[in-house]
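Weekly structure sync, notes
Attendees: PL, DS, HV (note-taker this week)

Item 1: Alginate export domain-containing protein
DS walked through the input record. Source organism listed as Sphingobium chungbukense. Sequence as pasted into the shared doc:
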Amino acid sequence: MKKVSFLLSASALSAIAVPALAQDVVFKPVVEARLRYETVDQAGPAPLTSSRDANAVTMRLRAGGEISKGPFAFLAEGEGTLAIDEDYNSGVNGKTLYPIVADPENVELNRLQLQYRTKPLIVTVGRQRINLDDQRFVGSVAWRQNEQTFDAVRVEYMGVKNLKVDVTYAISARTIWGIDGGKFGSANRPTQIDGDDVFANVSYKTKLGTLTGFAYLVDEDEAVVALRRNSSQTYGARFVGALPFTKKVKLSYLASYARQSDYATNPVHYSADYVAAELGLDVAAFKLTGGYELLGSDAGATGIAGGFAFQTPFATLHKFNGWADKFLATPGTGIQDYYAGIGYTVPKIGKAGPLVASFTFHHFSSDRLSIHYGDEYNAQVTMKLNKHLSALIKYADYERKGIASFTGDADTKKFWAQIDYAL
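Item 1 (cont.): predicted structure, written out as tokens:
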């Protein structure tokens, strides 16, 4: 907590000095709002069976502003989430008869940061949003109403052509569980996770795509054993690019590999692999996507019956392995995700647009023991209504196969409808 207070105090004191440096200070307001309805129908063998469907109507508001002058900028932003209809288990409200909708009521300081930015260098100090690459390892979890932010120092250097070096040292992650984190027996869902975390990326752009090497050192300094098991060291690389054939036809590709093992306070000794590969084909308004992702498992992990698998605790997890969120924690036997999707874009509908519709199918199996966990169908339609408003409807249907293979493995259907506003 002392380290957190130091970072935030440094940001605040520095910001007070910024306006004094000159008279023509620029102020930019920050206002974002979201109204969402989410329903969850979950069924499975006891104790997974929920006696009631979850129905959540939540409203999220972020408000603040940025003061800037020359290369210096100070940003402060508050965030609040209101449960208009709280017939759901938020994860920290004790309503365990309902399925989880991870949007608890909350009021918090979301961001408080001082930034120095020039063309070759950006330095950010304080509570901040961090999204690295596709957010598979580090992200802000923007899908949830309460955002994940970090108390950190981040340095981004772009002084060499086509090269970017991005290094962060974080002392705390402010989780999506908000001010009630840890209550009602949810010790593994805290308000914040303290530690000494290092996120390092070095990327180089070529004509064929961007090659990135990364190292993520996660040291969760917490008393809860389930959190300390997330302490890990991950080293890997990814290559992402696109090849246009014509003005309306383009091939995109992604390949990534990483190796993860225990680190720092983790009581479990293990090592596991990560593999991802994806191809996409854009043909006029259509986009076809197919891919594979592996989060491997170590059968010989010490102290864990059934093995221990590759974990990504700071990722924007909802983006990966299906929108039903069945694999937020990788099962001990690992996971293989084979997926294929199709999307269609309508650039304009009157003065509105674009409208984007998509459908994706996932086939989930284990890394070890040849378990077919289940299949999932995802569908979504988004539309930009005007400069400030956008709308979304979304559906996920996970169908379990055979017996329940991990905690939470149950047939699950989810539906969302939401409106977003951004100033």
